[in-house]
């Protein structure tokens, strides 16, 4: 979803037929994908979002480097690649620049997405260049307004932040966030751990204190003032994960504040995932629903039944939230994956001639300046007031033609706006807040998992040759972390079934034992 401050660690229906590369694309009604004998073993990947597309890419890296003999089939029930990362066009006109409907931003610490953007020659836009004001609304008043985009740049150092919260709370929070980022960067080093049990992983590598308590408890335990946590930090958790700071676990809270170097692909972040598949050797089956996965009797193989037929596989990678797939699998495996609630998030995109939200809605005078980006806190409701009717409102520039379109400019262009909310916002509400509204697009996402404090996680390995990428989501859920989780799964699966992984025979560490230092731009998986 659009994450205005997405942590460094997430409708083009015609995308399925516009790929600039030659991977097999089939629609379910037309494909005759029936079980047949194959010389090479096969791996099935279910889901073509960040996790599934990157899994295919990681397997292709191992094939390229070490000659692993395996074929890859990717199944996606939708008609596009990208999962929760997709775009729409103002007025449903593709000659206009697209708007992100799903996962919108990644940051400097997201080494896989940054490296992919560079390798695939994708143009980025920097959200930190935005010079608009940001306000935090509690349902009754603006408790804080930060000028000139500084919320994304240096929220801890502005005079208004220091005046309201003091010096200690922002600086301690900054230290905590930087510590989490530094530890997160360890996932890209040659010594990055591999894991098939996240409960063991979080304890062994000392992540448990960030996942077993709420963000508010963790911050207050580190002597961060409750007001700072429940206003400024909560504004970030509500826009990033739709959850309050006293509900979300501390890792989700810290990740929400890690906004340094926020960027997005100009033409849409989904292009990263299309290019992952372009640069793999995968066969991609869009509009193909996986119905059932069963063990092949008397073997360690798996049979995958789809809306187009069936196929036998040596390995299966499930890269979608299991309980949202309606896939039938052996009951002993299905019972291993506990139900995982997801946040229902209403995303509303619109165009308007209003340069900002109407001040009267916020109880201000008609000539008052309303911030272009409005985040929210639940703190007013805790004090007996009403909860804000939205999680965030953000202006995203003017409607414009894409480069190369028949018109280079739009006469008297309208502003584009994105709204996140728990409930659907009706047309009458939009008119009250914005006045004239020309175009509206609505989408209800099961956007991200409810990140409650926990010490238990789904298994990464369900059985021999069967792995679950989205087991990582209750730990943390972003586009970037899906690519990390898929790299881990691919490495485990390839070692188990083929005796060699993405970087060869070792599960951890570079195979070049004479290397004494790691290049500063080293990214595990891309480099070995």
UniProtKB/TrEMBL annotation:
<dbReference type="InterPro" id="IPR017046">
    <property type="entry name" value="Prenylcysteine_Oxase1"/>
</dbReference>
<comment type="similarity">
    <text>Belongs to the prenylcysteine oxidase family.</text>
</comment>
<keyword id="KW-0285">Flavoprotein</keyword>
<dbReference type="Pfam" id="PF07156">
    <property type="entry name" value="Prenylcys_lyase"/>
</dbReference>
<dbReference type="InterPro" id="IPR036188">
    <property type="entry name" value="FAD/NAD-bd_sf"/>
</dbReference>
<protein>
    <submittedName>
        <fullName>FAD/NAD(P)-binding domain-containing protein</fullName>
    </submittedName>
</protein>
<keyword id="KW-0274">FAD</keyword>
<feature type="signal peptide">
    <location>
        <begin position="1"/>
        <end position="16"/>
    </location>
</feature>
<dbReference type="InterPro" id="IPR010795">
    <property type="entry name" value="Prenylcys_lyase"/>
</dbReference>
<keyword id="KW-0325">Glycoprotein</keyword>
<dbReference type="GO" id="GO:0030327">
    <property type="term" value="P:prenylated protein catabolic process"/>
</dbReference>
<keyword id="KW-0732">Signal</keyword>
<dbReference type="GO" id="GO:0030328">
    <property type="term" value="P:prenylcysteine catabolic process"/>
</dbReference>
<keyword id="KW-0560">Oxidoreductase</keyword>
<dbReference type="Pfam" id="PF13450">
    <property type="entry name" value="NAD_binding_8"/>
</dbReference>
<dbReference type="GO" id="GO:0001735">
    <property type="term" value="F:prenylcysteine oxidase activity"/>
</dbReference>
<feature type="domain" description="Prenylcysteine lyase">
    <location>
        <begin position="154"/>
        <end position="496"/>
    </location>
</feature>
């Amino acid at each position: 979803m659009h994450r205005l401050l997405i942590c460094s660690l997430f409708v083009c229906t015609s995308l399925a037929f516009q790929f600039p590369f030659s991977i097999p694309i089939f629609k379910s009604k037309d494909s005759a994908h029936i079980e047949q004998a194959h010389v090479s073993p096969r791996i099935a990947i279910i889901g073509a979002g960040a996790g599934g597309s990157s899994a295919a890419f990681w397997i292709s890296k191992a094939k390229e480097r070490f000659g692993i003999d395996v074929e890859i089939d990717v199944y996606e029930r939708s008609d596009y690649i990208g999962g929760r990362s997709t775009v729409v066009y103002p007025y449903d006109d593709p000659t206009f620049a697209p708007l992100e409907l799903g996962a919108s931003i990644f940051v400097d610490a997201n080494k896989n997405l940054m490296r992919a953007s560079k390798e695939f020659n994708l143009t980025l836009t920097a959200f930190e260049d935005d010079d608009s004001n940001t306000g935090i609304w509690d349902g009754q008043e603006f408790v804080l307004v930060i000028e000139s985009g500084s919320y994304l740049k240096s929220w801890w150092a502005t005079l208004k932040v220091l005046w309201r919260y003091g010096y200690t709370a922002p600086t301690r929070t900054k230290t905590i966030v930087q510590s989490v980022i530094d530890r997160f960067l360890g996932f890209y080093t040659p010594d990055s751990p591999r894991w098939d049990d996240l409960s063991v992983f979080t304890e062994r590598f000392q992540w448990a204190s960030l996942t077993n308590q709420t963000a508010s408890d963790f911050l207050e335990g580190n002597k961060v003032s409750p007001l700072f946590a429940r206003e400024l930090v909560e504004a970030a958790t509500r826009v990033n994960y739709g959850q309050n700071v006293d509900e979300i676990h501390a890792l989700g809270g810290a990740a929400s504040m890690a906004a340094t170097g926020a960027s997005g692909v100009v033409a849409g972040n989904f292009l990263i995932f299309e290019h992952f598949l372009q640069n793999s050797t995968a066969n991609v089956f869009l509009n193909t629903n996986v119905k059932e996965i069963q063990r092949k009797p008397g073997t360690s193989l798996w049979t995958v039944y789809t809306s187009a037929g069936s196929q036998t596989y040596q390995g299966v990678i499930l890269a979608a939230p299991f309980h949202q797939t309606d896939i039938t699998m052996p009951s002993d495996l299905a019972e291993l994956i506990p139900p995982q609630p997801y946040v229902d998030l209403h995303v509303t995109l619109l165009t308007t001639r209003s340069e900002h939200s109407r001040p009267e809605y916020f109880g201000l005078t008609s000539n008052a300046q309303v911030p272009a980006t409005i985040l929210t806190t639940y703190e007013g409701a805790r004090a007996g007031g009403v909860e804000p009717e939205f999680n965030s409102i953000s202006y995203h520039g003017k409607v414009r033609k894409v480069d190369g379109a028949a018109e280079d400019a739009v006469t008297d262009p309208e502003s584009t706006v994105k709204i996140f909310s728990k409930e659907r916002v009706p047309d009458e509400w939009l008119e009250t807040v914005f006045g004239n509204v020309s175009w509206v697009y609505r989408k209800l996402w099961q956007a991200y998992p409810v990140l409650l404090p926990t010490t238990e996680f789904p298994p990464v390995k369900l059985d021999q040759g069967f792995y679950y990428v989205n087991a990582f989501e209750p730990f943390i859920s972003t586009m970037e972390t899906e690519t990390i989780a898929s790299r881990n799964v691919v490495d485990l699966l390839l070692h188990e079934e083929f005796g060699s992984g993405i970087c060869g025979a070792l599960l951890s560490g570079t195979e070049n034992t004479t290397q004494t230092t790691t290049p500063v731009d080293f990214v595990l998986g891309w480099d070995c």
